[in-house]
Design goal:
heterodimer; A: 335 residues; alpha/beta; 5-stranded parallel beta sheet; 9 strands; B: alpha/beta; 8-stranded mixed beta sheet; 6-stranded parallel beta sheet; 13 helices; 29% helix
Chain lengths: 335, 426
């Protein structure tokens, strides 16, 4: 269905979806069907990106502003590429290049930026909740690009997209399109306490019908996260990976080492590094995932990171089409 | 100066005394239904007339942080909330750790209308927790308690010395009982909600272990230690046990810990960011039970004003504190008394006799000769909270727009009208 004519026809998510959601702050209020629709839209976007001219006019006339109060070149570039591929204008704002000082309230910062009249703000901040706060104060749409330990919804969406695609390619497509991860188990290992990626993935994967096991050293593994349906918390990595469909290692922040939180790098590596052995305990089709950037030989053995089971490159590649789908879905509703 | 409060229902710690005209003269209660000429009248028909409240815990931000609050705005806000006496905290800039600063506060407060000021002084110099303040000189200048409130006293040895010294002087020591290392960088209650929201948590254990330490040091030194803003069921349990086993401690709870839970943080609004943090519903219910059974001695507001700009920062950067002097009584009247959970007399006791007993002051009464600090309450008319009408400089509220009953319509301090409610134009 993607032909020459389609090059100028924007892909169309279900109309109800476009109007139902003003923001993507986390997955609260996003029913499963809307999340599946986002992944389906990302499929269409991925097709767009295979064309010689990787650009559609879908968001012409819209302006997307990236507000990165905490620097992340990779995520920012991915969003900017996703906006430009749909002909949106892009403005970049980063805390280091701004006059943002400790004295200025968040609201005043937003007031200044709003004079630039963006339609959608992509926000990253070290404090959880900043995208929610900005969403209360602006008429524009807000996409959370990572807030503290809370959420990183587009990362979770691209992880889900990459895994859904990989399972389909392995001849294991979802039996029920509306619950693509039914019967699937994702293991997330590492510093869960401080990880927005873990929280967003646990939230999304379970909404898509799957089960999530969070594992890691007990001091970094909050048992309260197990209160969500479908989420289990266990410090036993070996038990967790048995029969799992995917194993995701989280980036370990070096500053946690030798702090009161963790004894030593060697001890962490010994107990929680993802190795070939773990993948052998997992399902035959199981994939290794990582949100990047990877600490090789810390949270993951290099042979696993580079091995045939690694999904890391597909995760990175999924970033642009998934973010295109998010921007498209939120902005077309505003037309 | 003679003034009559006409026709109000008189109610104080000695009981319900029926509808009477209450006369005050030259700063003291003169008597009821005396008749004769007066200089001023206040119509209290249908209202409840009761001794003005005592707040042992308010941050008035003066000196140095007058953009948040100052003596004039803070004491006016207190009177508007029905309070006749306020103990101001010492975590100002500079810290109130010097007798000259105490004397200055007392002198300036005497010149502004509003509630009476009884300042607290710092327990350690600069609130640094390293050196004791000159407590005898501070008390002589007018300080009524010592406290590093806002900053827990990390060093147990220093706290012990402070308690020995305060005990000798008969000063009340007020604590901010949270273990600083366990509290760490927490901005809300640690639990399921903080984990869901991805905000750093502050566990109830940080409060419970410090209350235990502070209570045991009260016991070993004989100091009268007032355990401020107990926020959790576990903390209250420790406090109850300390009291039952004879430690000379008293317990305080705040209006917000009696009415809000950590779920209030779900919208990431720093207006609800407060230390100690808002806890779970079970904690709220335990604190309410503590009022009913008398294990709690006093309600202290922990009025902690900040500017709106400060409160519109992100959840990690925004300062802790809720400004509540003006809404405390209506809030508690509505949520506890009108809801049938607590008798009116019990709520009043925790704002009158309870705090007075903590300090060793006479119980406030409407009897002849007693200081004429009186508040007139409208327990019937429901009126919405409008932050912009606050006399406090913090014109924002977690309860904005909520309809409460129990608003003070007038407050007398030293026999003079310190506050009179102005009805908003319809």
């Amino acid at each position: 269905m993607i032909g020459a004519a389609a090059a100028h026809v924007p892909p169309t998510p279900p109309p109800a979806l476009a109007r139902r959601h003003r923001h993507l702050l986390d997955f609260e209020g996003w029913p499963t069907e809307d999340l599946v629709a986002l992944l389906d839209t990302a499929d269409v976007m991925a097709q767009v990106l295979t064309r010689p001219v990787k650009r559609v006019p879908a968001l012409q006339g819209f302006t997307v502003a990236t507000l990165f109060f905490e620097e992340s070149t990779r995520t920012r570039l991915s969003f900017e590429r996703a906006a430009r591929a749909q002909s949106a204008d892009v403005m970049s704002f980063s805390a280091s290049s701004s006059s943002l000082t400790k004295g200025e309230s968040l609201r005043d910062t937003l007031r200044t930026i709003e004079q630039l009249q963006a339609d959608l703000y992509v926000v990253r901040h070290r404090a959880a909740g900043v995208p929610h706060q900005l969403a209360r104060w602006t008429d524009g749409a807000v996409v959370n690009a990572g807030d503290g330990r809370h959420a990183h919804p587009t990362q979770a969406l691209l992880d889900a997209y990459a895994l859904r695609t990989a399972l389909a390619e392995a001849g294991l497509p979802a039996e029920d399109r509306t619950r693509p991860f039914a019967g699937r188990r994702l293991v997330i290992v590492g510093d869960v306490e401080h990880s927005r990626v873990a929280r967003s993935n646990a939230s999304l994967f379970t909404r898509l019908g799957g089960e999530v096991v969070l594992t890691g050293p007990a001091g970094l593994l909050p048992p309260q996260l197990g209160a969500q349906p479908g989420v289990h918390v266990s410090p036993d990595l070996d038990a967790a990976v048995k029969g799992a469909d995917a194993v995701m290692a989280l980036r370990l922040q070096r500053e946690r080492m030798g702090s009161s939180r963790l004894p030593s790098l060697a001890e962490y590596v010994h107990r929680y590094q993802v190795r070939q052995r773990h993948l052998e305990l997992a399902a035959p089709h199981a994939r290794f995932m990582h949100p990047g950037p990877m600490n090789r030989d810390v949270e993951v053995a290099t042979d696993v990171a580079d091995g045939p089971r690694s999904l890391v490159e597909s995760q990175v590649a999924a970033g642009v089409p998934v973010r295109m789908a998010v921007l498209y879905t939120l902005l077309v509703g505003k037309r | 100066m003679r003034l009559a409060l006409r026709g109000g229902l008189l109610l104080d710690g000695s009981g319900d005394r029926g509808a009477h005209d209450l006369y005050v003269k030259d700063g003291v209660i003169e008597g009821t239904d005396l008749g004769g000429a007066v200089d001023q009248e206040v119509d209290a028909d249908g209202m409840t007339v009761t001794p003005a409240f005592l707040d042992l815990h308010a941050h008035l931000r003066d000196p140095g942080q007058e953009t948040k609050e100052d003596l004039a705005s803070g004491l006016a806000a207190a009177a508007a909330g029905g309070f006749g006496t306020v103990v101001s905290m010492a975590n100002t800039v500079p810290v109130v750790d010097d007798p000259g600063l105490v004397a200055d506060l007392v002198a300036r407060a005497a010149r502004v209308p509003g509630a009476r000021l009884r300042p607290a002084a710092a327990l350690s110099k600069g609130l640094r927790g390293e050196e004791l303040t000159d407590m005898a000189a501070l008390a002589a200048a007018g300080a009524v308690m010592v406290t590093d409130d806002g900053v827990p006293v990390a060093d147990a040895r220093l706290f012990r010395s402070a308690c020995h010294y305060a005990a000798e002087l008969g000063l009340v020591v007020q604590t901010h009982s949270e273990d600083p290392s366990l509290r760490d960088d927490g901005v809300m209650n640690e639990g399921e909600v903080s984990q869901r929201l991805g905000l750093p948590g502050n566990p109830v254990e940080a409060e419970a272990v410090m209350l235990f330490r502070d209570g045991e040091i009260a016991r070993m030194t004989g100091a009268r230690v007032h355990l401020a803003h107990v926020s959790s069921a576990r903390g209250l349990g420790v406090g109850r046990w300390l009291k039952a086993s004879g430690a000379p401690v008293t317990l305080e709870v705040t209006p917000h810990h009696l009415t809000l839970t950590d779920e209030a943080l779900a919208g990431y609004d720093p207006l609800f960011k407060v230390a100690p943090p808002l806890r779970r519903q079970a904690d709220v219910e335990a604190l309410r039970a503590g009022l009913l059974d008398g294990s709690v001695d006093a309600i202290g507001t922990d009025h902690a004003p900040h500017t709106l700009a400060e409160k519109q920062q992100d959840m990690l950067s925004a300062p802790f504190g809720i400004a509540n002097l003006e809404v405390s009584f209506p809030l508690l009247h509505t949520r506890l008394v009108a809801a049938g959970l607590l008798p009116l007399e019990r709520l009043l006791w925790h704002l009158q006799d309870g705090p007075a007993a903590v300090m060793g002051w006479p119980a406030p009464r409407l009897t002849p000769g007693a200081p004429a600090d009186v508040t007139v309450l409208d327990l019937k008319t429901a009126t919405a909270v409008v932050g912009s009408r606050f006399l406090s400089k913090a014109k924002h509220s977690p309860w904005e727009g909520e309809a409460f009953t129990g608003w003070p319509v007038a407050t007398l301090v030293r026999g003079e009208v310190a506050y009179r409610r102005v009805e908003a134009a319809a």
